[in-house]
Amino acid sequence: MDQITQLARLGLFDARVPRYTSYPTAPHFGTEIGAADFTRWIAAIPEGARISLYLHVPFCRRLCWFCACRTQGTQNEEPVRAYLQTLLSEVALLKAQLPRGVTLSRLHWGGGTPTLMSADMIATLAAAIRDAVPMAPDGEFSVEIDPNEIDDARADALAAAGMNRASIGVQDFDPEIQKVIGREQSYEVTRTAAQMLRARGITSLNADILYGLPGQTREKISQSVQMLLSLNPDRVALYGYAHVPWMARRQTMIPSDELPTPEERLALFETARKLFVADGYDELGIDHFALPTDGLARAAKAGLMRRNFQGYTDDTAEVLVGLGASSISRFPQGYAQNAPATSAYTAAIREGRFSTSRGHAFSGEDRMRARLIEALMCDFRVSTRELVQDYGADPAALARLLSSCAEHFGPMVALTTEGLEIPEQGRPLTRMIARHFDAYDLSKHSSAI
Q1: Which helix (H) or strand (E) holds 334?
Q2: pTM for the whole thing?
């Protein structure tokens, strides 16, 4: 039986499973977690600890049809400037609650389009964050950049603020595909943005590219990947387009009858994957590639790669604080999400309280299963000893759990003396294998491919 037949038999081409950027996943967060929990978890951070900070800017000049992020459109800067004032108030609230000596190992501005902020807004926000939580000497400050929304003034402001990694969304360079997904962005504009950033000493560049888009063929994705490679990104995320119009209404603008079949999606991924590997990139996890000199590649080799809401990361901080509407924080105690609606988020901050509206407090086997799933997603292997010693797993129950997975997936997983591994032929099934250990999931997600 060949690999494709085995993958089909196990349901890969029909499955819709989580991406597992958290466990449990966000659809299972509940309203029992609120601002008091968030405040208590912030206060419990040890003095002198290193934390991560994610800041969400939910505005875009245009709403790309493929995007399922929580965003809203604006044609002027007034809403953005008003939102900035709310963010500054939230940063002040955080500063008042943080234990002394806390520093940032990672700072990430996402969206939306953070570069909709003008140069003066960028400088003001960066200064407020620096005052509240200083950056650690080896800290990393990254920003998601729309090449259509960057100019010399904003690039100068970001560089002056200490940004040392930039993330550029590409999706696909084919003009016809760009029209269909509502994201027109030429190669020339993208190249100019990359050159603009590198000219200011920002040498670490991430890029996102999508497979599974309407009208995409192996030839077209090959061309887009080769164009992207000409920009020499340090790190690439090769994401499968998640067509979830029941969650993101704007995706109804995308003709579903032109989407590739699951089998075609796998072929598109394999085509792009081989090109990145052939160009000297290390293959990391299920969908990332990095130059061997990049921090993520080094972390993967050392077994230190982790997974969070931005995908794979080399950040090992135990706490990730999310600021802004809809942002999610991760603590050793659980997850806390801010109010998704900008109006509700703003109202809470104006009242002098955090806007936490839902979340999840870890209980039972949550931590153990979270680590098991993360290990599979990052390293394709699970260490029984780690789960028993560090997460309190019952050895007999864990053995039964791993054995049931091996029985279900057959040769696509392997029981070892150390635990369980996913061999190369089974790696397209990684998200499905991870779901086998999910005690919560009953909801509808994106395609497993």
Answers
A1: strand 334-338
A2: 0.94
